Amino acid sequence: MPGLTGKVALITGAGQGIGQGTALAFASEGVDLLLAGRTLDKVEETARLARERGVRAIPVACNVKSLDDLSAAVDKAAAELGGVDILVNNAQEVPLGPIDQVSDEAFTAGFESGPLASFRLMKLVHPHMVRRGGGTIFNFASSAGIRWDMSHYGCYAAVKQATRALTRAAAAEWGRENIRVLTIAPHAESPGLKSWIDHNPDEAEAFFRTIPLGRIGRLEEDIGRALVALCGSDLSYLTGATVPLDGGQANFD
């Protein structure tokens, strides 16, 4: 992708799943990486794979619910890589279940790891992006937020819909600074989705039948490469939108 070589991306939840797939897709385009995740061994492995593609990749242990950890990650990206051009707010704890069975702790963790962490990181990287002439921020939502039957998904949907609102606000406020903010709503072969499939086989079978393309997205090829494309000049007029990478399943209109 012309123009991405030498850019710097900060990716949360980079030790596995979508975070790792996105990291490797960016590495293939010459993007240097600050890779954040709760389990250092996992992000170190992602960094090793990224370095094999010829880029700088720095792994850091980071709990996205900790403002101190988030600040340290951004500071490290600035000190060792020069700043941040791309932010991928991927990490998220998922509060699932009937409303009367989801604990206050689980619901709070969903907000702290989701919209609050995204909000904090957006503010932390903003001055670096301004200094570097702009940037692209990706927040993550879910089609759970627009289900016709919200049973067992209400808490998760509330978290994700809050994230979409933050995206719209940041896109409106920062557009004149050449900072684009997008929400991604993916279906991908992540450990979380695989676990859900294992624990909900009947619902999963029905779920697959609703995907027009008939498959779940591949981590690097379908999700990571799409984020690479969205950072490119051909899509530089797109901001504030929710982009469903879900094989055509959801209708966000």
UniProtKB/TrEMBL annotation:
Belongs to the short-chain dehydrogenases/reductases (SDR) family. The keyword Glycoprotein does not apply. It comes from Sphingobium vermicomposti. InterPro entries: NAD(P)-bd_dom_sf, SDR_fam. Keywords: Oxidoreductase. CDD domains: SDR_c. One of its GO terms (molecular function) is oxidoreductase activity. The keyword Oxidoreductase applies. This is NAD(P)-dependent dehydrogenase (Short-subunit alcohol dehydrogenase family). It catalyses: 2,5-dichlorocyclohexa-2,5-dien-1,4-diol + NAD(+) = 2,5-dichlorohydroquinone + NADH + H(+). It comes from the Bacteria. Coiled coil: none annotated. SUPFAM superfamilies: NAD(P)-binding Rossmann-fold domains.
